[in-house]
Design goal:
The chain is α/β, with parallel strands linked by helices and 278 residues long. The protein has 10 helices and 14 strands. Helix 1 packs across helix 7, helix 2 packs parallel to helix 4 and helix 6 packs across helix 8. Bound molecules: NADP nicotinamide-adenine-dinucleotide phosphate.
Length: 278
């Protein structure tokens, strides 16, 4: 039985992964910052040495762009140093490290798809700290997979929840029309991640739902599937911190013949109908 350590298990991706992994097939170790703080090198190393997982999945991170801008030290501590600590620990016990990353490492303002080999040029502290984390993983860990995704939603966090909150309070929501990416459900992303637990593939992979839209279109779709309404105010937002277009191409998943996430509208409808059932 494979032993899988999910780091950052209380976040959107960590929760989706926990739900997906078959308890009969994998032995799951789940930690968040209360159990193992990724910024603490010794804590990470001793937990890894004591439990000896076959695969570590790093879903921990400071993912709020504003928090990262306001507290760069915290962003680098978790997103970069945390990645380093896990990379070193994974190497020491010779296990595979699956590390999550983001479209925010790119910055082009033309409508191009980014494959895994495009040059990264992050603008925000979040993007810079995540890119530095990727480099730590690549340079310090022998067996790594880096999975980059975009606009991830799940477990009551992220943009879908923001729209639901606006509906509940009937507060008009200002939504950019000039930012494009692929909304991706944490569940679809978790399905991609699980393929790497059992296979022997390594390297950088993009994993986003099929198709893309702007934030305004994303918000309209959320309202459509909720069957509810709130005023949406279309705005043009600056692109100092994010590129206008950050649409990822899942080229490596395609070339390796791996299963890819669904169309973004289908995944979104599925997620929202799941919310209504609970
Ligand atoms: N969300 C997106 O749109 C998106 C897009 C692309 C890639 N990603 C990447 O995917 C990964 C998971 O994202 P997510 O959406 O699941 O993020 P999330 O919901 O913010 O979850 C991150 C988890 O990490 C925890 N954490 C923070 N500091 C920690 C520390 N020092 N030690 C251990 N755990 C710590 C957080 O706890 P607290 O909440 O208490 O701080 C949270 O439970 C991240 O690497 C992120 O960069 C996310």
């Amino acid at each position: 039985m494979q032993k899988v350590w999910i780091v950052g298990s209380k976040g959107s991706v960590g929760v989706a992964l926990t739900k997906l992994l078959d308890m009969r097939k994998y032995e799951l170790l789940k930690t968040d910052k209360e159990e193992v703080d990724v910024t603490d090198k010794e804590e990470v190393r001793s937990y890894a040495a004591a439990t000896r997982p076959d695969v570590i999945i790093n879903c921990a991170g400071i993912t709020d762009l504003e928090v990262c801008e306001q507290n760069p030290d915290l962003a680098y501590q978790v997103n970069t140093i945390g990645a380093r600590n896990l990379a070193v620990a994974a190497n020491e016990i010779e296990c595979k490290l699956i590390h999550m990353s983001t479209d925010d490492i790119f910055s082009l303002n033309s409508p191009e798809f980014y494959n895994e080999f495009e040059e990264a040029k992050p603008k925000s502290i979040y993007g810079k700290s995540k890119y530095a984390g990727e480099k730590m993983v690549q340079s310090l860990c022998n067996y790594f997979v880096i999975i980059r995704s975009s606009w991830v939603y799940g477990t009551g966090k992220g943009f879908v929840q923001q729209v639901i909150d606006a509906v509940d309070s009937q507060t008009p929501l200002r939504v950019p029309v000039n930012h494009y990416a692929s909304p991706t459900s944490a569940k679809e992303l978790a399905k991609v991640i699980t393929q790497f637990i059992d296979n022997d593939l390594f390297g950088i992979y993009h994993a986003v739902c099929k198709g893309y839209c702007n934030r305004y279109e994303f918000a309209k779709a959320i309202l459509k599937y909720l069957g509810k309404d709130v005023e949406l105010i279309p705005i043009e937002e600056g692109n100092e911190r994010r590129p206008d277009y950050s649409v990822l191409d899942n080229m490596m998943l395609r070339l390796d013949g791996l299963e890819q996430p669904k169309k973004w509208e289908v995944a979104l409808e599925e997620y929202i109908s799941g919310l209504e059932r609970n």
